[in-house]
Amino acid sequence: MRYDPTGHLLLTPVDKEAPARVRRLRGLGIGDRVDPEFDLFAGRLAELTGAPYAMVNFIDEKRQFFAGLHTPGSSMERYMARDHGYCPHVVVRRKALVLEDVCDYPRFAGNPVVDEIGIRSYLGAPLIDRTGIVLGTVCVVDVEPRRWGRAGLDTIKTMAAELVEQIHRREDGGI
Question: What is the pLDDT of residues 126-175, one digit of tens each?
């Protein structure tokens, strides 16, 4: 955590890996354009978890980009400010985050996505590639509180590992 010059607590964690992440994403050719394969992946993730919304999210110094997006009946934007949502926390923590009801956590309840989009629950895992860089996240969200449970956590972590392998196969020329 850090404070802005006016002394207010900034709830989005400082991300010292962002410049290295941006270089790695550029080298992989991902993270700044819509990818139909990532959209399909997000759809599969939503189906497996029973969540209405799912994303493949890459994060730079200022914003998040949903290269894969599943939002039935919604026209959610592909870009979001870095200080909106919970994925930046997953990236800095380097581990999965489960929020069954974001309103139960003062640190997360005040996030703009609660009021602007109506997000009430979140489940996300980091995409850590073979170089050790956290490229971004895979996540699912709901507008209702949800008990994701151990099964949900296992699913999101397994799916994150699967997507990282897919990215590695692309890099190696296999896809």
Answer: 999 999 999 999 999 999 999 999 999 999 999 999 999 999 999 998 65
Tokens at 146, concatenated? 């949800």
Residue 31, classified by CB atoms within 10 Å of its CB into exposed (0-12), middle (13-18) or buried (19+), is buried
What are the CA-CA distances from residue 117 to residues 32, 76, 111, 113, 170 (Å)?
A: 23, 9, 10, 5, 33
Token pair for 85: 């949502």
Instruction: Compute the distance between CA of residue 31 and CA of residue 158 in angstroms, rounded to an integer.
Output: 21
Q: What region, left, alpha or beta, does residue 2 occupy, with left being phi > 0 and alpha being psi -120 to 50 degrees?
A: beta
Listed residue (7, 63, 69) closest to 36, CA to CA: 69
Which residues make beta-bridge pairs with 63? 81
Residues shown for the chain: 175
Single-letter amino acid code for the residue at 69: L
Q: How far apart are CA 94 and CA 169, in angstroms?
A: 22
- Between CA 100 and CA 123 the distance in angstroms is 8
If you search the block for the tokens 């972590």, which residue do you land on? 157
Query: CB of 1 within 8 A of CB of 13?
Result: yes
pLDDT digits over 69-104, tens only? 999 876 778 998 888 889 999 999 999 999 999 999
Confirm whether pTM is higher than 0.85. Answer: yes
